[in-house]
Amino acid sequence: MKRSLGDAGELFPQSVFIIASYDEDGVPNAMNAAWAGECTRHEICFNIGDHKTTENIVRKGAFTVAPADADNVVTADYFGIATGNKVDKAEKSGLTFTRSEHVDAPVIEEYPLTMECEVTAIDGDEHGARIVGRVVNVLVDEEILGVDGKVDFGKWRPLVYDAAHMTYRVVGEEVGRAWNVGKPLV
Predict the structure, then answer these.
(1) Are the C-beta atoms of 64 and 19 separated by less than 8 Å?
(2) Which residues, including other chains, have CB under 8 Å from residue 17's CB and lie 6 or more apart?
(3) How far lies 10's CA from each of 7, 106, 160, 167, in Å?
(4) From residue 76, how far is each of 34, 96, 104, 139 by CA, in Å?
(5) What Å distances lie between residue 65 and 17, 32, 80, 165, 176, CA to CA?
(6) What distance in Å separates the CA atoms of residue 5 and residue 28, rounded to the nearest whole number?
(7) Which controlled-vocabulary keywords does the entry list (predicted)?
(8) Can you tell me whether residue 137 is helix, strand or coil?
(9) 54 contact partners, CB below 8 Å, separation of at least 6
């Protein structure tokens, strides 16, 4: 038997993206954004409200995205709780923010993967927007790479946000090879 949940739209886990940017004075800021994702192999898209990060990205035309992992769940959550309009989140987090070599945005050294992005489209303004960025470079710690040289999600343990239960979960278990496990039905 199936039960109707009405228009509940938050049933699927969302990526926990930490979006980092610089303000007009070069001060780094980071925020937790769950309404985000890869919209192609080379693009990131996210919806963002009226935040310091929104203003920074509109002004600078660049940002970085560090998908949060289990080892950084505390700072990832902090980046979603605190506001950069009232506190220097980079300083308070105790993390290391360094300048990207490819875009005008910071890299958070403690996060094992960072996508460096330049803005290609903004639908809105500094008070709220849908932003698309082209990934110009990906930085990755070797510790999360598999023997094949690709990111190993079991080693990395990235977070997803379960909005239905307001909790973070970990990605990592492999349950079948894509474009393979379904072949018996072909």
Answers:
(1) yes
(2) 32, 33, 34, 36, 37, 44, 46, 65, 66, 67, 68
(3) 9, 30, 12, 12
(4) 11, 14, 21, 18
(5) 6, 10, 14, 24, 28
(6) 41
(7) Flavoprotein
(8) strand
(9) 48, 126, 127, 128, 129, 131
Query: How is residue 145 annotated by DSSP?
Result: B
% of the chain beyond a pLDDT of 70? 98
The predicted model gives 121-137 an average pLDDT of 93
The pLDDT of residue 4 is 83
Q: How far apart are CA 150 and CA 171, in angstroms?
A: 16
Q: Are 161 and 16 spatial neighbours (Cβ–Cβ below 8 Å)?
A: yes
Contact 45, 84 (CB under 8 A): no
Instruction: Say which DSSP state 69 is in.
Output: B
pTM of this prediction? 0.91
Strands (E), the chain: 14-15, 17-22, 28-33, 36-40, 43-48, 62-67, 97-99, 106-108, 113-125, 128-140, 159-162, 167-170
The total number of residues written for the chain in this structure: 186
